[in-house]
Amino acid sequence: QVQLVESGGGLVQAGGSLRLSCAASGRTFRFAMGWFRQAPGKERNFVAALDFNGQSTGYADSVKGRFTISGDNAKNILYLQMNNLKPEDTAVYYCAAASRVGGPYFRPMEYDYWGQGTQVTVSS
Predict the structure, then answer these.
(1) Which residues of 31-43 are buried (b: 16+ CB within 10 A; e: fewer)?
(2) What DSSP character marks residue 87?
């Protein structure tokens, strides 16, 4: 029903910025959305989330104040603006969609659709 494709990852120096995009196809209306990341040897961790109305947001403590989640509903694109990047932000970043209303949701198990991921590497 839903396909998600991330883009915008790359290599940046500490303190730099990146904007990740997640293009959605299929029905995404009233779907809560989120961003997660997974570093080598680590579990997939919550980064940021948006409720199904695109109104309420939630952030991991480690990125709060630096990252901003937003969506362009008309274009079916989810964004993650990442500022003041740190080496510990290095990971594969995934966007996700939940097949339910409500949110924001903070756990991977609450999401039903996932993109392939995009690599973000922050050098020191």
Answers:
(1) bbbbbbbeeeeee
(2) G
